[in-house]
Write a structure and sequence with these properties.
CATH topology of the largest domain: Rossmann fold
Number of strands: 5
Bound molecules: zinc ion
Helix content: 40-55%
Structural class: alpha/beta
Number of domains: 3
Order of helices and strands: HEHHEHHHEHEHEHHHHHHHHH
């Protein structure tokens, strides 16, 4: 992975580049960021840069012998440890080593994916993955070998917070007495779940979430989405490229169509239609029901802003703009609070496993009343 393949994050990139250029590479570093952030991607780009034979001021060369191998994740001095579990094809000696081929494919497909995606990818079904105590023996063996080609042997541990305590203690020992020319890159989502004695021996690289604009660019470039759809999804992704990718599969413009249809039915008191729609709402499934309500809240916020001052809305897809214009006459300052509260409540109850059909019908009756107030 090259730094240039990661959107934004210039400050973090510069810090990492400088540490190599000034020979200040810490032997253990902790790339800390939420799921769907650039924590793994940055660690990969950093490792590539360290091993690059023709370092450029702002990136690896991308073409030297080392870069070619690093980019395919097959460099012999670049090792991985990640949570795994027994599967249909691996039933005993469940170690990271056995999943290397899958790991390479998985990371090369997208370094922004999360643990759930990884577990699905290896066919773990509902089992939880971890870094077992057997893995610690493997780890000690690994670092006792000399680097084959590069200056450094690099061990990347993905989600070290899922280490069995024996494995964590083995890692701690290695960090206390670091083997020569060995780098540990820990890529973690929650430092508080790591041993404090481990964290204190690492240099921490804080990785922020992606910005809304970065998510839009990512979806346009990687998922070939049009700007309007990318924009809709960026509103729900909360800076996670993993969520954004998942939403790409889940969401469609149907949210918009469904919402407008719903609001029209409520406004005109067509409760038979509302009941029919509640059946459809039921079939969306809980995650989608929640996404839909969040989407509705987002759109409603725009309606209210538009009513206050249309210049507050910087961008809206044309079909949404048309709806927002018309709807801003129905939802105004006098009922916006109640409508918002109603939708938030619906989301709250859905999250707590209430009956989706009942919630939908109840909310519709309330919303109809609030809308007619104007
Ligand atoms: Zn290179």
């Amino acid at each position: 992975m090259l730094f240039s393949q990661i959107l934004g994050h210039n400050e973090a990139k510069q810090l990492l580049l400088k540490s190599v250029q000034h020979n200040h590479v810490a032997h253990a570093q902790l790339f800390l960021g939420q799921e769907g952030s650039a924590n793994l991607a940055l660690a990969l780009a950093y490792a590539t840069y360290i091993n690059c034979e023709d370092k450029q001021p702002n990136d690896s060369c991308g073409t030297c012998n080392s870069c070619v191998k690093m980019n395919k994740l097959v460099h012999p001095d670049f090792n991985f440890v990640m949570p795994v579990t027994s599967t249909k094809s691996v039933t005993k000696d469940v170690l990271s080593q056995k999943f290397l081929a899958e790991w390479r494919e998985f990371v090369l497909a997208s370094p922004y994916q999360g643990l759930n995606e990884w577990m699905q990818y290896i066919g773990a079904e509902n089992k939880q993955g971890n870094i077992s105590k057997e893995e610690s023996r493997q780890l000690v063996k690994l670092v006792s070998l000399k680097a084959f080609e590069g200056d450094y042997k690099i061990v990347l541990i993905w989600l070290p917070e899922l280490m069995h305590s024996t494995a964590a203690n083995a890692l701690l020992k290695l960090l206390e007495e670091p083997p020569a020319k060995t780098l540990f890159l820990l890529v973690s989502q929650s430092a508080e779940k790591l041993l404090a004695t481990i964290t204190s021996r690492t240099q921490i690289v804080q990785v922020r979430n992606f910005t809304e604009q970065e998510v839009v660019t990512y979806l346009q470039e990687k998922h070939n989405l049009d700007r309007d759809t990318a924009y809709q999804i960026s509103q729900l992704a909360e800076g996670s490229l993993n969520s954004a990718a998942k939403l790409t599969n889940e969401i469609s413009s149907d949210y918009f169509a469904f919402f407008t249809e719903w609001m029209r039915a409520c406004y005109s008191y067509k409760f038979t239609e509302v009941v029919d729609m509640s059946e459809k709402f039921q079939t969306l499934g809980r995650e989608n029901q929640k996404n839909f309500l969040l989407y509705a809240l987002n759109l409603l916020r725009k309606v209210v802003l538009f009513g206050v001052d249309s210049s507050l809305i910087t961008y809206l897809p044309p079909n949404e703009l048309d709806f927002v214009q018309k709807f801003s006459k129905v939802i105004t300052g006098s009922n916006a609070g109640e409508v918002t509260e109603e939708l938030s409540q619906a989301h709250y109850y859905i999250e707590r496993n209430a009956n989706p059909k009942m919630i939908f019908v109840d909310s519709s009756i309330q919303l109809a009343g609030y809308m007619r107030k104007n």
